């Protein structure tokens, strides 16, 4: 069986392993790097719970092989808070009650992270389109939208 | 929870086209698969619908990703991702049919990785781009170790998940004729929810003469049938005529009559899909005209 040596930088820390090419990126993140903030929901690329940022672009990490991320930079939910201080998006989800069970939350936050990087000032419609690849079975989305709006204002220094 | 790993395979990530062609010619008989955006292939592998023994990842070949106009064609590299088409001013302003179709594929995260070539080569009945390529009269450049050939869109799509691409060939480039003046197009998709595959989709591309008569018309329907269909009868009804509401209604009726949707166990009724194919076409023609005339 083919094994490949990969080194993936996750949240600015290198993780190396000998893996089979069929190992999915989400399993590398959870099982090898031990970063279990990234969730697995549907496994069919529909729910977005596994969303992470790979070299600046959001990806559903259940739909990429870990070997494809070799030598690249990944950001997961664990990489957002700095020096014990929540990222404005995390803060937004807390302040605006953007979650209930929390299962979708890490993926939702990473999708919002990509959205705000591309468009720092999204309209409500743009927010809804931005998270259309992420399913939440609890909230009805309203407070998630509010949370992302909060984060966009906070990041522009308006709060 | 079941964890779905694909079956084992041998992985290659070639750095240039020569290597890709070598690998394809060496392994195609043993079921080698090209991996582009993976937004269909990896899912199919996880579900074990297919289990290729060899996977040739083309993501490290930047020469397969480009958008430019030359020699009368818009040329797009097969590995060009949806997001790059969506963000391109050229596509947005000059190719509204392609722009609308791409913007309505899946969700932004899938659009970060999915590629135009993967969409066309997979030819999944619910995919947006096969019908678009028919409406544009696009053509495709494909290569194998012994050379390259050009296939017109109308000869390319053979059936569900089937194309005329041979197993040792790779699609490298999509070519769409540069629109003449007074041209526009539109894409409309009926789906259960945002980002879902099409129940029915319609792709319309129109060019007018200066006297207002139709110079060229491309009309194709996706989703409803097993394979996208170019509705030649509807195109012929338009060409040479001056467009008015009555003619547009007639064209809608032709589309509904011609299309033969497949019966799906839990899907909408065939009659509904027939009717909607006509309705969406009427709307898309009207929107195309509005874009041209303003
Ligand atoms: C949640 C979700 C929703 C979706 N919704 C839509 C939708 O609304 N509309 C839509 O159109 N699509 C939709 N898709 C499908 C998506 O567009 C896929 O990305 C696309 O079908 C395949 O493109 P890819 O680049 O990901 O190709 P891959 O998955 O990598 O490959 C698909 C197939 O094409 C072959 N292939 C790829 N590139 C080449 C090439 N250059 N030459 C030869 N063969 C090649 C591969 O070997 C494979 O068999 C959706 C996907 C998901 C996950
Ligand atoms: S687990 Fe990856 S999209 Fe659902
Ligand atoms: S908070 Fe429970 S799924 Fe979103």
From TrEMBL, chain A:
Name of this protein: Carbon monoxide dehydrogenase
InterPro entries recorded: 2Fe-2S-bd, 2Fe-2S-bd_dom_sf, 2Fe-2S_ferredoxin-like_sf, 2Fe-2S_ferredoxin-type, Beta-grasp_dom_sf, Diverse_Oxidoreductases
Domain called 2Fe-2S ferredoxin-type: residue spans: 4-80
Gene3D superfamilies from the UniProt entry: 3.10.20.30, [2Fe-2S]-binding domain
Origin species: Acidianus brierleyi
CDD domains: fer2 (cd00207)
Domain of life, per lineage: Archaea
Keywords for this protein: 2Fe-2S, Iron, Iron-sulfur, Metal-binding, Oxidoreductase
GO function term, MF aspect, one: oxidoreductase activity
TM ranges: none
SUPFAM superfamilies named among the record's database cross-references: 2Fe-2S ferredoxin-like, CO dehydrogenase ISP C-domain like
């Amino acid at each position: 069986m083919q094994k490949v040596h990969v080194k993936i930088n996750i949240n600015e820390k290198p993780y190396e392993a000998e893996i089979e090419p069929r190992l999915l990126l989400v399993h590398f993140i959870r099982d090898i790097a031990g970063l279990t903030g990234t969730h697995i929901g549907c496994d069919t690329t529909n729910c977005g719970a596994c969303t992470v940022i790979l070299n600046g672009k959001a990806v559903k990490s259940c739909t990429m092989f870990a070997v494809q991320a070799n030598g690249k930079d990944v950001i997961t939910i664990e990489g957002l808070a700095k020096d014990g201080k929540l990222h404005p998006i995390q803060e937004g989800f807390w302040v605006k009650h953007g979650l209930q069970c929390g299962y979708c939350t890490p993926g939702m936050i990473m999708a919002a992270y990509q959205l705000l990087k591309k468009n720092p000032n999204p309209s409500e419609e743009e927010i809804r389109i931005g998270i259309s690849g992420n399913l939440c079975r609890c909230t009805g989305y309203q407070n998630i939208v509010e949370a992302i709006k909060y984060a966009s204002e906070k990041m522009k220094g308006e709060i | 929870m079941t964890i779905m790993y694909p079956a084992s395979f041998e992985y290659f990530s070639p750095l240039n086209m020569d290597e890709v062609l070598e690998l394809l010619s060496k392994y195609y008989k043993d079921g080698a698969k090209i991996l582009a955006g993976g937004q269909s292939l990896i899912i199919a592998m996880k579900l074990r619908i297919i289990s290729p023994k060899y996977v040739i990842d083309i993501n490290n070949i930047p020469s397969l990703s480009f958008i430019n106009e030359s020699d009368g064609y818009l040329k797009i590299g097969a590995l060009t991702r949806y997001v790059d088409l969506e963000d391109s001013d050229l596509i947005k302003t000059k190719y509204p049919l392609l722009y609308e179709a791409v913007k309505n594929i899946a969700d932004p995260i899938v659009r970060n990785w999915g590629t135009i070539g993967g969409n066309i080569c997979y030819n999944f009945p619910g995919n947006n781009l096969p019908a678009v390529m028919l409406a544009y009269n696009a053509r495709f450049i494909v290569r194998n170790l012994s050379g390259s050939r050009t296939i017109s869109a109308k000869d390319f799509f053979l059936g569900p998940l089937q194309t005329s691409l041979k197993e040792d060939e790779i699609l490298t480039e999509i070519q769409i004729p540069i629109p003449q003046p007074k041209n526009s197009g539109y894409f409309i998709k009926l789906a259960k929810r945002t980002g879902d595959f099409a129940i029915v989709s319609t792709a319309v591309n129109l060019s007018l003469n200066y006297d207002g008569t139709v110079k060229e018309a491309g009309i194709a329907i996706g989703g409803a049938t097993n394979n996208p269909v170019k509705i030649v009868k509807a195109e012929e009804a338009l060409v040479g005529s001056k467009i008015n509401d009555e003619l547009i209604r007639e064209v809608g009726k032709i589309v509904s009559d011609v299309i033969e949707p497949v019966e799906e166990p839990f899907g909408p009724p065939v009659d509904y899909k027939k009717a909607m194919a006509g309705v969406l076409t009427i709307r898309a023609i009207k929107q195309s005209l509005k874009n041209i005339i303003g």
